[in-house]
Amino acid sequence: MRIIYWSDFNCPNSYIGLVRLKRATDELDLDVEWEMKPFELYPTLFNKPTNSITTQNIIKYGITPEDAKAKIEETEKIALNDGLRINYKDIQLTSSRNAHRLVRYVQKKHSNLSQDLIFKIFEANFIDNKIIADIDTLVEIASSLGLDDIEIRNMLESDSYDFEVRVEEEEAMIMGVEAIPIYFLNISEEQLIVPGAFEKEDFKIALIDLMNGEIESKSYI
What we know:
alpha+beta, Glutaredoxin, 4-stranded mixed beta sheet, 51% helix, 11% strand, globular
């Protein structure tokens, strides 16, 4: 099975959804080839924190500070139900472009480590509240997986894979992707598109339907 998904490291639902989907594939003992594609939730952010996530949500969604705080707290509760003790309210919100560049590089050069890298970046952002735009942070994460520090630093300090990230974000726009996460589940010639962070059991149902060829009468969009 091949799973392609558009996601972002600043999107808590992307983190929650990926954890749920990974658990579903593990419980079904599926052999999966994963590929993450970039979709920057906040494309105008800088490499250093400027606004809190509360302020950013007020600006992005046009809601009150009280509603923004409640939205963040609700997200943390949802994550906790899945065993993820995220600290969303204290996230150091920065550009996710460098993280996406690193993922594209590792998926191409060290594909066997790419999903571990992705989970570690999510953890660094939402649990440890590290600055994921910072090259030192990304080098440290990559190094923890056994990747060469110099190799990764040289890549990140250049503009390598910036073009690829922009192309894949444009691809999402062309395909009509307006919200993340979104998952494209592929087996043989069949494909099922699943938008959003489904519950783990719902992901399992979708995967089973796909494997059994029972998707024609169902829609998850």
